[in-house]
Amino acid sequence: MTSYQETVSKDELIEELISEKTSINHVEIIENVIDSLEQDDSAMVSHSPEGGYLWKFKYGTVEVFIQLTGSTDEDTITVWAAVLQLPAKDEPKLLRHLLELNCSSTFEARFGIIENKVVVISIRTLAEISPGEVSRLITIVATVADDYDEALQSEFGAA
């Protein structure tokens, strides 16, 4: 029996590996993670004509948002959840507390302010992102926000 071995050039092999790596379906990955975390069938999604997506779902006592701007390496995934409405009581103490938490408790996420709301947020470009990283970003933001929202509202809410 004759055996034929296909010869593939180094460049062809590299191109094949690159195309396999870039064929990650970010939308599918995000929706799978949401399915595992959401509560009460709360997930909603909107899709823009430009190729972006925006999801919202309930996790514990917070609403988590995920924005995917597209599917190229330069596009981003942003995950955020609001934990406290501003203005707040004793804002200098609040801001110091949030900075301390950013250094010790938020992993790849961080506290920030968007439209007069304290949020937990994480932003990452899609370049070389793995399905595990997508899952971790969403899970970390949801968990940190749910862990801190009630305590922050209790101590600093409604100035």
TrEMBL record:
SUPFAM superfamilies cross-referenced by the UniProt entry: Type III secretory system chaperone-like
InterPro entries: Put_sensory_transdc_reg_YbjN (IPR019660)
Protein name: YbjN domain-containing protein
Organism of derivation: Anabaena azotica FACHB-119
